[in-house]
Amino acid sequence: QKEVEQDPGPLSVPEGAIVSLNCTYSNSAFQYFMWYRQYSRKGPELLMYTYSSGNKEDGRFTAQVDKSSKYISLFIRDSQPSDSATYLCAMRMNTGFQKLVFGTGTRLLVSP
Amino acid sequence: DGGITQSPKYLFRKEGQNVTLSCEQNLNHDAMYWYRQDPGQGLRLIYYSQIVNDFQKGDIAEGYSVSREKKESFPLTVTSAQKNPTAFYLCASSAGVNQPQHFGDGTRLSIL
Questions:
Q1: Which residues neighbour B45 within 8 Å (Cβ) at sequence distance 6 or greater?
Q2: What is the pLDDT of residues B2-51, one digit of tens each?
Q3: Least CA distance to A49: which residue of chain B?
Q4: Would you call A82 helix, strand, or coil by DSSP?
Q5: pLDDT at position A30
Q6: Which of A33, A36, A54, B90 could join A88 via S-S bond, C-beta 3.0 to 4.6 A?
Q7: Each residue of A63-99: pLDDT tens digit?
Q8: For residues A109 and A31, what is the distance between their CA atoms, to the nearest angstrom?
Q9: How confident is the model at residue B69 (pLDDT cuts 50, 70, 90)?
Q10: B102 touches B36 (CB < 8 A)
């Protein structure tokens, strides 16, 4: 079993829809959670960075962490065709140097 | 503009050849990282450096080498010992070793 599981998609939605992207993980020691957006042939771009449980909002994006269920989500409101990309979740533990553990990414397609 | 520059964007390697991928950052970040991205897999850590003149192996360091002689630069050499080098290579940096990581736009390495 992988430490971080993410559905590869593709997830296809119409423009304006609310998108929900999710990751599950097995290591309860993960404390920091990130979402990256990656366009084709480009590097990942950091969207959200959260610590422990709860919600964090930034514009059209909301990151949610449920540590009791070992489940994190990224919600995108009013989705746009420019949101079409692969979304990667990443997480790490708290102490010392801890490598990031990445999900494999979910491909999102937003149609006009 | 501050950022991370990777070059070249595309690189071809012949059998038995070593090739070097360049990564330069002007963000004044102390920590730098090299990842490999393969289809269907999460990003995997090759090497990381917390400070100039120091670097550590990641999960898949075999067949790779790095140097960190300057704060701004962290070149990766893919040696002939790396038997499956075809991948998308991503360089990242962060202000400190457990701060959010920011990525360059990658180098795609292929075998001739």
A1: A99, A100, B33, B34, B35, B58, B59, B60
A2: 699 999 999 998 888 999 999 999 999 999 999 999 988 889 999 999 99
A3: B100
A4: helix
A5: 92
A6: A36
A7: 999 999 999 999 999 999 999 999 999 999 877 677 8
A8: 30
A9: very high
A10: no
Please answer whether residues A57 and A70 qualify as being in contact, where contact means their C-beta atoms are separated by less than 8 angstroms: no
Q: Please state, in angstroms and rounded to a whole number, the distance separating the CA atoms of residues B7 and B10.
A: 8
Beta carbons of A48 and A61 less than 8 angstroms apart: yes
DSSP B11: E
A85 CB neighbours in chain B (<8 A) are none
Residues of chain A contacting B90 with CB distance shorter than 8 Å: 43-44
Kindly state the tokens that stand for A105.
């990414």
Tell me how far apart the alpha carbons of residues B61 and B44 are, in angstroms, rounded to a whole number. Answer: 10
> B4 with B75: CB under 8 angstroms?
no
